[in-house]
Amino acid sequence: MSVTAAATATGTTAPLPDRTVDAVVIGGGAAGLNGALMLARSRRSVVVIDSGSPRNAPAEGVHGLLALDGTPPAELYARGREEVRRYGGVIVAGEVTSAGPAAPSALGDPRFTVALADGRTVVARRLLVATGLRDVLPDVPGLAEHWGHGVVHCPYCHGWEVRDEPVGVLAVGPASVHHALLFRQLTDDLVYFVRGTGLDDGTRARFAARGIRVVDTPVEEVRKDADGEIAGVRLADGSTVARRVLAVATSMRARVEGLEGLRLPVEELPDGMGHRFASGPAGLTEVPGVWVAGNVTDLSAQVGASAAAGALAGAHINAHLATADTDAALAAAAGADRATDAERAA
Q1: What is the predicted pLDDT for the residue at 91?
Q2: pTM (two decimals)
Q3: What is the 3-state secondary structure (H, E, C) of the chain?
Q4: Structural domains in the chain plus CATH codes
Q5: pLDDT (tens digit, 9 = 90+) per residue, 74-92?
């Protein structure tokens, strides 16, 4: 996304500070904004770099978030940005093209340089990476155009909205079996398209007991009706299974582009489920001075969990900065004492 488009998506933008800031947050979704909020409320200088392309942008509303259920994602993030600004945080629209270590302070306190696509740069003492993830759909013709509407992936995010509809599960691997059982809770009319992934006799018996129809014939394409909505799934034998909603477990790929210079370890998940940045408690990584939060490290986290992870990471970053500030103050005081002693001895 261009800077102009990002600025449109994120509202008004601010210039990058020309001084070293306490923290740069890369990513302006729930995790990034809540982390920035915690830092700004702690009177830290914090800059959020927001590309304006959150994962849930196609969704009509955020669900499962207490007191905010059904809020459109764009509205939620606009309110979050305004809250960060209220406490002095800076929101910058742009795309990060590189991030890496810079020369540390005299006491070894980390520094990082973050560069944007338009050539601007900012230096920070700490980084919070909250870039989220990208959902990769199976290569089925006609599927992608319905993403976020007729094509869904999360029974907790979209399930109520598709209740009692004719739902089809497009299998992508072993995870799709559990996926089907979750969507069966929401509709009595569920079809499981095996798509060559294999299904043992025990699972077939379990599906039969729940009234889940299994289709082994290969899937050719997703068909739509005159209104542009999903009408069904055309099979290799020429037949069409009528469906209104398709559920698919996407491959979830953490957004790591431009962050290679940080050398954060990436974990590949089994069965092609995706990859993520590895992290420890509160999002701490093995790279000193760098934290991660939200879907970039917890692929299954909904908005509420991502926001909570961002808040926890922000609090930990502030605590680490407080320790570093005290170390610097102590060193300065010791230096002043030595200078005084030298003057007296002169």
Answers
A1: 97
A2: 0.92
A3: CCHHHHHHHHCCCCCCCCCCEEEEEECCCHHHHHHHHHHHHCCCCEEEEECCCCCCCCCCCECCCCCCCCECHHHHHHHHHHHHHHCCCEEEECCEEEEEEECCCCCCCCEEEEEECCCCEEEEEEEEECCCEEEECCCCCCCHHHECCCEECCHHHHCHHHCCCCEEEECCCCHHHHHHHHHHCCCCCEEEECCCCCCCHHHHHHHHHCCCEEECCCEEEEEECCCCCEEEEEECCCCEEECCEEECCCEEEECCCCCHHHCCCEEEEHHHCEEEECCCHHHECCCCCEEECHHHCCCCCCHHHHHHHHHHHHHHHHHHHHHHHHHHHHHHHHHHHHHHHHHHHC
A4: 3-134+251-336 (3.50.50.60), 138-247 (3.50.50.60)
A5: 999 999 999 999 999 999 9
